Amino acid sequence: MSQEVICNSQLVNRLIKITNNPITSYAQPNQSNLEFIFMEELAPNIFVETNYEGVNVGAIVTKSGIICIDAPSYPRDARHWVTRLSALNPRPIKFAILTNAHGDRILNTRWLDTSIIAHEKAAEKLNNYDKRYPQQLLESLSQRNLMAGKELVNGPVDRAAISFNKSMTIIADDYHIILSHTPGPSSGSAWAYIPETGILFTGDSVTVDTPPIINEICCVDWLQSLTHSITSYDVQQLVPGRGVVSTPEEAIPPLVDYLTYIEENIRQLILEDKKREAITFLEEKLLSMYPNGDFPQEWLQKQIRLGLERVYNEIKSTMEVALA
Questions:
Q1: Where are the alpha helices (DSSP H) in the chain?
Q2: Which of 18, 69, 122, 196 could lock onto 101 through a cystine, CB 3.0 to 4.6 A?
């Protein structure tokens, strides 16, 4: 597999091979007044937590430290996660892989206190921020959960120490973690696949029982990832960006239906020369396709509307170019 990687040269040796003493068991302390919740061990030393509000997080325990996949959305959850990880292996966290640079995955990476790995588009987004994260990222998360959002602070931006273009592979003890750029809800979306186990972390490219948040990219490319790119992997367990661990057969069809509905209806509106404001009629149907989502209704409806506007703009622009 071809690999194009941009990285801090001092981190290269740490990335190539991770070694030392194995950890074979884990503890789940109850911290920060959070309920006693159980992270799931999908395969030996590969863990996922789907109970934190907002996003799923993963951990691959190696002999010399832990490789994290994403970070919890709120400070108290991030602190709780780090405490639990220290029970798996007390050594410092080796790396944190970001599956995208959406606000609810980046604001609390500082609690992991480690180097970030991300696709170059996600790394570019982080680099384009000023010294601190934009206030609107904090406001959006606070609106989603007023209580947990009280702890959010506009801290210094954690920038990626290592970025990749198409793909890269991390060797972690007996596992290979294959990172690949896979178009999804944002331009820097990436998947993390562990072929020895058939486990695929998709980030927000796949969500289960909750609507996806469309940040930047066109539904057409995203649908291509879901219907074609995923067939190149032997996936036994799919860890979505939000929702329960599933199989591709369980998780993919509802999302394909959702995105296809958006793409087809918006394309028809444009063909009928309807203004962007006409997309509002789609919201009720989209909300009904994921009726049991955990997000506050008002916040979710706003995110759906913003996503529809982005898709409308992109499809309209693509159609105008094709006709020029």
A1: 12-16, 75-88, 103-106, 120-128, 135-144, 146-149, 219-227, 248-271, 282-289, 297-323
A2: 122
